[in-house]
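Review form for a predicted model. The reviewer records the input and the model, then writes brief findings.
Reviewer: anonymous (R2)
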Amino acid sequence: MQTSSARKLRIAAIQYLNPAPLMWDFEHAPEDTRLAERYAIHATLPAQCAEALNAGSADIGLIPATAYATMPGLAILPGCVIASLDAVRSILLVMRTGLEVNAMRRVAMDPASRSSNTYAQILLRRFHGVAPEFFLRAMPKNSDPTCAVDAAALLRDCDAAVLIGDPALRMIEESEASHAGGGESVRCIDLAREWRVHTGLPWVSAFWAVRPEAIAASGHAASDVVEDFLRSRDHGLQHLEEIVAEWTPRLAGPPAIAATTIRAYLRENIHYIFDDACRAGLECFYRYAAEMKILPEVPPLRFL
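Model under review:
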């Protein structure tokens, strides 16, 4: 129950397509007006969501899985996740044409996603037996996080690069179209599918995390907060066609991402329910990352 003196909880959200179903009630009538009395939303990139939580400028954030391992004291808001049960299409390792994985020497990491970079390191080192140099590529100032990325520029100083989000969707659309037309295209490895092949588990990218002390101090009941986010997820999954219609013009290009691709992505590539299989996949990710000294050891998962 909300008290009369309750303050708004600050949400750090992500600007990409894939969280759109989770955000449905926060952005659409009739629930948006009610939720605007409880929450203030700031849209940003995945890694910056974690930074906002860490700095105390956000109370709830859709954070990369890696951030939870490095920020003690957070709790996971149950039920909601950005995951995939097989191919995800929006998390890629983009490679030079003709290059074999075992010949990789230098890999650029995407500054927008710590989790995807960690998955790439685990998959290459643990399952492919290669240990290239990983470095963080620069993010152009004032760049639109939904825009296309030029493959030649991406691979100018490296053999391969991690690419996430809407730019990755555009890259794979362009690559598949070029290949279908008989042209030369870069090789795109879907990291979520690679993870599934080698572990048999879902790939988990991000989830809502909270600062429990901020929830307690806000005057909002934790159960009400959880219910708000679960209802928004459920309503979003019931309105996927409306989301497709909203996002098709936003992703019009160049290169354009077709409505059919957006629909398949939301219905088939992304999994939004944080179930036992996702928990097992996340725990496996943390275990491998700790064994390889990429992340610190993570204690048992804590839920709000």
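Findings: The chain is about 45% helix and 20% strand.
Further findings: Residues 9-86+203-291 form a domain with the D-Maltodextrin-Binding Protein; domain 2 fold (CATH 3.40.190.10).
Recommendation: see findings above.
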